[in-house]
Every structure is written in C-alpha cells, then in structure tokens.
User: What shape does this take?
Amino acid sequence: MKNEIIQAIKQLSFDNKVVLFEDTKLSKNIITKIQTKFVIGNPRVWWLKFIKKPQSFTYDTKYLYKQIINFFKPNESVWIVIEDDTNFLLLSTIEDFINIVGECNYFEYNIINLEMNKLLCENDHDELLLVEL
Assistant: This one.
C-alpha cells in the first residue's frame, strides 16, 4: 500500500506538498501519541477499539473518501495514519489527501487534525467514523 501511495503522490506531483514520514523515531512517536489519545490498546485496526464511541456516517456512494471534506476544511493540514502491515504517517492537506486516495485501491486510513482532538477514519464497512475528544 505504501508504494501505491508514493506512486500516487508522484503522479499528482505532490512531492513538495505531502510529507511521507519514513519509519523513523519521529513518525513512531507521533503515531504512538495519536494512538494513545484515541485507541485502547493495540488492536489489529484502530476503529475496533476507539477510546470513545465514534459517530458513524454512511453515504450512498462508492467514493466515500470524497465525503472527508464534510469534516475538515479543504486546505487544513492533517496527520494521516495509514493502517497497513505496519502503520505509516503522512502530513497533507485534506484536499491533497482526497486526490491521493482517488488514485489508489481501497485502504483504511485515520485522519487526525493537528490539535489531535479529532479523528476520522474510513473502515471496510463503508463507514466514516468520527471521534472527537
């Protein structure tokens, strides 16, 4: 999945706009901080064990990721934790991330505002789940 996202970033010429954090101490610290705030323990996928019951949103579309714009400002910078074999981290605007998702196969992601008090994720049940602390 990581390679597909990297390819989408290059294809969209977002190399200078989107930061992909490689597996570094910094990225691990940020992911751990986010996970500690929003998730209980270390589940297989975060949405299984949110610290607070999420609000669930469903839409009649196969392009659920396009609805992200309803929860954030288009130019808002956010952390994005991609859940894959190992979690990895992006820093992007909402608008750019929506374009990246549109170039990729389905994957689960968590979008966290920089204040780390709001998390939105898309799960494999065609839901957007919102947790606000």
